[in-house]
Each structure stands twice: as structure tokens, then as C-alpha cells.
Amino acid sequence: MDPVEFRPFLLRDREASHQIVSFFPQGREGAGRAAVTAPRRVALIGTFPPRKCGIATFTSDVAEQFARFNPGIALDVYALDNPQAAPADYVGGGGAGVTGLIEQDSAESYAVTARRINESAVDAVWLQHEYGIFGGPDGEMVCDFVDRLAAPLVLTFHTVLSGPSLRQEAIMRHLVTRASRIMVMSGQGRDLLVSRYRARAELIEVIPHGAPDRPFGRSETFKETMGLPGRKVLMTFGLLGPGKGLERVIEALPEIVARHPEVVYRIVGATHPNLIASEGESYREGLMRLAKELGVENHVLWDNRFLDTPELLDQLEACDIYLTPYPGLQQATSGTLSYAVALGKAVVSTPYVHARELLAGDVGVLIEPGSSAAIADAVGRLLDDPARLGAIQRRAYARGRGTIWPEFARAGAALIGRALAPAAREVPITATPGLSGVFAMSDATGMLQHAIGVVPDRRHGYCLDDNARALMLMNVAQGLSRSERMDWAMTYASFVQHAWNPDLGRFRNFMNFDRTWCEDCGSEDSNGRALWALGHTAELSPEPELRRWAARWFDEVCPIFAGVDYPRSVAFALLGAAAMLRVDPGHAGARGLAERGGVLLHALLEASRRPDWGWFEAMLGYDNPRLSQALIEAGMVCGRDEWIAAGIDTLGWIADRQTASAGHFRPIGSETFGRPGEALTFDQMPFDQQPLEAQAAIEAARSAWAARPDRRWSDHAMAAWRWFFGANDRGAVLADLATGRSRDGVTPRGANENCGAESILAFQLAHHSMLALWNAATHAADRSGDTLESGPRSTAGQSAAQPLAHP
Questions:
Q1: What is the reported pLDDT for 673?
Q2: Where is the Glycosyltransferase subfamily 4-like N-terminal domain (predicted)?
Q3: 428: nearest Cα among 770, 49, 37, 747
Q4: E strand or H helix at 467
Q5: CATH fold label, 219-400
Q6: In the Cβ-directed half-sphere of 35, how many Cα atoms lie within 13 Å?
Q7: Do 297 and 289 touch, CB atoms closer than 8 A?
Q8: CA distances from 234 to 212, 230, 325, 350, 578 (A)
């Protein structure tokens, strides 16, 4: 199995016309590297012994059986704990393998654990879900918890309700939207997930509850051990409570005993801890009184303990008929039912979901719920006919061969494998992306905003932001004839020009498909980005006429930013001013704008920065690296070293927070935007991840390299570039080199299949900056004799944008 850590390496060939960055995970064979075997690591979340509940037993069994049968998957157990209700020592005894604890009613504990799991760089998270084991009403704290997890999520639903409350249904639907794979133990559970909870059928797998593999037909031997030779043994095991229906079996005993006086009914298991806390042993005591009143107290044997699995199995082996008379019919899973069938026991049960499916085909006997007469008749008939009893036991044993732990472990490993992010594919860094995706989103008016899949969605019209970016792309795009470049550049430039509202002295942003404006004044961000595009065009357009046009409009627009203070608007405008100053160092408007912007951003940083928070604002938003990039470039054009230093320091800070423990790029997700900074350590939501953030990381790293060359920036830019090609939390390949399209981002379920203008342009512009940065970094390494093994060395020519590492 491949571990999650991505370790890119370079196939260096000085004779080659281009180089390929190989994004194989460590351990994958390729390019002469030997395979390295290392286990996958999966965070397994559920209750765990010594806590007494069925989920705890299941989680413990999974951990034990995977260690035995799947050594290629290492499980880190995170146990849900309820210290107020049932303090438990997880260090000793059954909890020796616990990696961490989650206090089930503590929101902070969920947040801390999610961060810890993310930092541990596990390949996947496997969560056991039952409403009663998570904190909040109906266990709703699980929703916030899964939102924080970056690794692919595998869910096991132990209960799928056909008649949930509104809150229960909302919780399930939320979990379904976050899951990469879903496991249920019954076909009905699968069908309900699809029909009621809107789960995708292809993500759901039915894996029967695991069961032990023991020889058949040893009941008499174990009866001797337990002092029950010659008896006919009925048995029920589990935590006692009114939902078990045990009173119906006791009511049936007089008739059973009258026909078979050798019968004993063994009730094995402790009273449920929640019932003990509220009512003590009143339920058990009531059952004992009932047995006495009916005169069968000597035929009921009590074992008031929660047994560990080996002893439970020994006791199950000693029984002839196993009873599960549950009155509720929605129970999707019963571990002890699975155990009893796998050990070859005849089962008499009410037709709850698990029993109905597991006992189909005369593997057991199903009876109507709530009927002591039905229990007496079913048990009596089996004991009356030893041949039939033996036949059912053999059929049960045969059915159980499909549920024994080796089979469960095999199916579970396959389930996890299908959830894991696949390796990122090889990407030639020098390959020029096609532009058909850009032009398919464009018409004579400009570039449309959104798409459904790859088809432009005209309902949302156009926006200034995207057309400004598209103009920037035409300044640096390669592989275009002069006439084609000019045609499209004129289209996008015309949109920018038409967006200007001279009455207000501001740009509009959104336009309907019928070319009517949606507003008189666009956002400050869109105005800042328009000025950036003008400066960029004045610096980098291959067409002299367009450079002069851009310079003229820059002069017209520049004064409006004298009163703009919003950080990103200032940053975008400052980047345009820096571009203009690289063309005309004496440009007074650009100089004033760059100095004002640099002072504002630097002051903002000084006011917000704390020992544990090195950022410009008290929260993170979109396009975060642009603030650092703008301060670096302001320092470069204004000769302010302290601004450069601050910009590089903050870029390092945000780069650290956008790098996963496994080393791949993990941009701040849109769900984190606007969350208070002091809580970010716990509250960062890894999704949705957007191409705009990867582009910003690459271009900011390029500016940092231009100011102070450092291998760190080339490595970070390469991580962000690989993000487009699958080196991300879902292994989702977003970019298509052939068309130049990019999907709209990474969601908990993989790629957002839409290809909007912002995403396409982010990928296109990121490519040109990435190529220019790596050309510069590789040539610097060649001069110094160093080797850049994590990036490409291109001999295929330089990027069109060389002045300062900008597209």
C-alpha cells in the first residue's frame, strides 16, 4: 500500500527538451526507484473498551482483526469518551491501543482531535456513527467534527432510521455529503440511504458485521465446562434494557419448560449504563420477579457482566438456541446475532432489519414481535425436532462463513482503498495548456462567469473580475497568432473599458447576458483587480497599442484608490501600481499608490500581529497570499526593505498553514473564510478548496523569489501547482492540459465538476507564473551547482513574463 506522503522527484536529463515532475507517492515503483512497503494509516473513530456498548466492541474487534489480517493498514484509534457518565481507563486493559480520546460533549475536544488527525497525515478517517455516542442533541456535534477533517471520510452507519426526526435526518444528510465511502451492514440500510437521505448508491457498500471463525458443533463440550451437561440452553446476550424484549421470553418459558424441563434460559450481560444511572437495576429486578411469579426462576440463569469477546464466544458455544426478541424492528446491526450465526446456533428472532436479512433462507426462525406465544411455539418446535434443529444450525454456520473476520477485513480494506486519494499523475511542467476552454467560455461580449460542467451558464452573465483576469492571460499566453491574441485581448479590454462608470468614477462588476449592468458600482475588490489588470497590461502586453491604452486608463482610474482602505482592494491596486512602476519608475500616481498601500498594509500587520498570529487581519479570507505579495512588491518598487521582510515573513506564515502534514498543498477552504483568527487553529475547515488560492500561492511565491531567492518558495509553488493535478486531499485531478480548463475546486467528495471562468483563469495564469519561477530557480541552482530535485528544469524557452515573476 502507498503511504499518503507525496515526495516529488525529478527525472533529470540534460539532453531532454523538457522535464517531467513525477508526483508518485513514496513507495510507488517508477523511474528506477524500488518499491517501498509502508502501511496506510487510518484514523478509526468510535467508542472503545472498557466502555460498555456494542459500538465499542465493534471498534475494538475491527482494530484487532485488521492488525491480524490487514497488516498493510495501521489503525489509529480515537475513542469517544463520556467521562461524566462512565469514566474509563483507556490506558490499561482493552484501551491499550487508543491513540487519543474525544470527550463526546466537548466541542473543543472535537476541534482539537480533528486538528490532530489532520496533522498526523492519515490516509483516511473511518468513523462509526450511532446517534447516542456523539455530543449534542441526537449527536449533532459529529457534523462539525467531520467538517474539519481533511482526509477522505469512510462512514459506517450502525443505524439507518426509516422514520427519523427532522434533526436526525439533517445529521444523516450532512454526513452523507461528507463521505467518500459509506458502509452499512444491511441492504435495507443501503436502500434507505439512497431513497431517504439522498446518498449516491455507488458510494455505499454492504459489508456484513464481522464474526468469529470457530469450529462447528462443540456445544456439548462447552456445556460441560459451564456445568450444564444434558441441558437445552437458550441464551440472550447484551446490555439489558426494556428494548430487548426479554420479558416475552420469560413469559414463554412455562410452556417451553412444560414440554422440555431440561431447558435453561441464560441472560448474559450487564444492565445498560444509562439505565443504571436513571433507574438502577429496576429492570433486571422486574424480570427476576416475573420469572418467580411464573414459577420458572430456576430455569433462568443470570450472568450480570459485560463479557469480553473471548468469554462471550465461549458462552455462545454452549447454547443451542439464541434469542433476539427485540420489539423494535429498525435495528440494522446486532453483533451478537452475527456471532451466534457464525458459531452455528439456531436463532429465534423478531424480524428486525439485521435478522430479516441474515436469517433469510431458513437460516433461522423469524417470529412476530411482542408475542410470548410465538416464542414458545418456535422454540418448542425446534426442541421437538432435533433433526430440524441440527439442520438450521448447519445452515447458520454455512451462512456465517461469509461474515467471519477474515472476510470482513478483506472487504473493509477494499472499502478503505476505494476511498483513498489516488496518486497524482505525471505532469510536464513545460507543456503549454490549451486555450480552447478559455475561448469556449467567451463570446463577443467577454468571458462568461460560470459553467455547468464544461458548458457555459449564460444565466449568470459576465463579471469584470474574470474579464480583467482574461486580459492578463492574453498578455502572457503562448501559442497564439498575433491576430488571435489581439482579437481576444481587445474583447476583454473592451469589457474592462465599458465597465467604467464615469458618473460615479468607479467600475461596475456584474453584467447580465443581455449586456445590461446589474449594478452601478462594483465591489472595491473588483475595482482593485481592474487596476491591477491595467498595470499588468501596460507592463506585459506584446502589443504597443494595448500598452498605451492600458497606461491611459491607469491614469484615469488610479486616483479613486486614494480613499480605499479594504486590504485586498489595496493589495490588488498595489500590484497594478508596482507593474506600472516597473514600466515607468517616475509615474507619480503609481508611486503614490504604492507608497500609500505599503504603509497601510504594514501598519495593518503591525496592529494585528501577535506571537501566535502573524497575519494582517484577525481572520483569513480568500486570496490571502496577495496581501504578502503586494507588500513584497511595494517594498521592491519603493526601496523599503522592512516591507519586503514583512511580506516574506507573512507569506511564510500563510504558506505553513496551507501545507498539510503530508507535504501537499491544502489551501484555506472557503468554509474557513471569515472565521475568527484566534480560533483558526481549531476551526480551519479544509473545504471547499479553490483554484484561486493555488494561483495566489504560486504568484506570491514568485514575487518572494524575485525579492529574495530561496528554495522554500520554489518548493511551495510546486506544491500548489501539483494541487491542480491530484496532489490534494482527495486526489482530485482538476486541470486538463489539453483544453486548459480547471474544475472549480476540491470538495469533501472530490472535484467540483463545474469549470467556471475564475478556475480556468487561475490555472492558466498559475501555469505561466510556475514556469517562469522554475526557470529562474533552476538556472540559479545550475549556477550554484545545486540540484532542484523537486521541480522541472526547462530547456524549452523562457516565459513571456520575465521582468519580475509575474504572468
A1: 67
A2: 54-210
A3: 770
A4: helix 464-476
A5: Rossmann fold (3.40.50)
A6: 7
A7: no
A8: 20, 13, 12, 15, 85
pLDDT of residue 86: 55
Q: Are 353 and 332 in contact (CB under 8 A)?
A: yes
β-strand partners of 9: 22
Report strand pairing: 40-46 vs 745-747. Answer: unpaired
Place of cell 474574470: 466
Reading the block at residue 800, the C-alpha cell is 513571456
Q: What are 751-777's pLDDT values in tens digits?
A: 999 999 999 999 999 999 999 998 888
pLDDT digits over 401-445, tens only? 999 999 999 999 999 999 986 655 556 677 788 899 999 999 999
pLDDT of residue 359: 93
Point out the least confidently predicted range of 331-345, 371-385, 488-502.
331-345
Indicate the CATH number of 29-210 among 3.40.47.10, 3.40.50.2000, 3.40.630.40, 3.30.70.141: 3.40.50.2000
Long-range contacts of 397-403 (CB under 8 A, 24+ apart): 397/216, 397/341, 397/342, 397/343, 397/344, 399/341, 399/358, 399/361, 399/363, 400/211, 400/338, 400/341, 400/342, 400/343, 400/344, 401/342, 402/208, 403/208, 403/209, 403/210, 403/211, 403/338, 403/341, 403/342
Residue 434: its H or E element: none
- 267 contacts 241 by C-beta, under 8 angstroms: no
pLDDT band at 785 (very low <50, low <70, confident <90, very high): low
Report strand pairing: 500-501 vs 506-507.
antiparallel
Lowest mean pLDDT among 20-24, 139-143, 157-161, 519-523: 20-24
Nearest to 518 by CA among 456, 621, 416, 449: 449
Q: Encode pLDDT of 281-340 as tens digits.
A: 888 999 999 999 999 999 999 998 878 888 888 989 999 999 999 987 766 678 889 999
**One-letter identity of residue 369:** P
Find, among 568, 574, 569, the residue nearest to 554 by Cα. Answer: 574
The residue type found at 635 is: G
Q: Show me where the domains of the chain are located.
A: 29-210, 219-400
**Residue 426, pLDDT score:** 58
Among the residue ranges 107-121, 178-192, 431-445, the one predicted with the least confidence is 107-121
Cα distance between residue 162 and residue 524, in whole Å: 50
Q: Are 436 and 453 in contact (CB under 8 A)?
A: no
The SS3 of residue 208 is coil
Burial (CB count <10 Å: 0-12, 13-18, 19+), residue 356: middle
Question: What's the CA gap between 633 and 804, in Å, rounded?
Answer: 9
User: Residue 191: what pLDDT?
Assistant: 95
Same CATH fold, 219-400 and 29-210?
Answer: yes
Instruction: Provide Rg for the chain, Cα atoms.
Output: 33
Dihedral Cα 711, 712, 713, 715, nearest 10 deg: 80
3-class DSSP assignment, residue 83: coil
By the 8 A CB rule, do 485 and 473 touch? no
Residue range 252-268: average pLDDT?
Answer: 95
Instruction: Name all contacts of 163-167 with Cβ < 8 Å and 24+ positions apart.
Output: 163/330, 164/196, 165/138, 167/137, 167/138, 167/140
pLDDT of residue 25: 30
Listed in sequence order, the residues at least 6 apart from 75 whose beta carbon sits closer than 8 Å to its beta carbon are: 41, 42, 43, 44, 62, 63, 66, 67, 126
- 9-12 CB contacts, 8 Å cutoff, 24+ apart: 9/33, 9/789, 9/790, 10/788, 10/789, 10/790, 10/791, 10/792, 10/793, 12/787, 12/789, 12/793
Q: How is 345-411 classified by DSSP, letter by letter?
A: -EEEE---HHHHHHTTTTTSEE--TT-HHHHHHHHHHHHH-HHHHHHHHHHHHHHHTTTBHHHHHHH
- Split at pLDDT 50, 70, 90, the class of 473 is very high
Using a pLDDT cut of 90, give the percent of the chain over it.
Answer: 72
- Cis, peptide link before residue 385, omega less than 30° from 0: no
- What's the gap between Cα 717 and its chain centre? 23
User: How many Cβ atoms sit within 10 Å of the Cβ of residue 288?
Assistant: 16
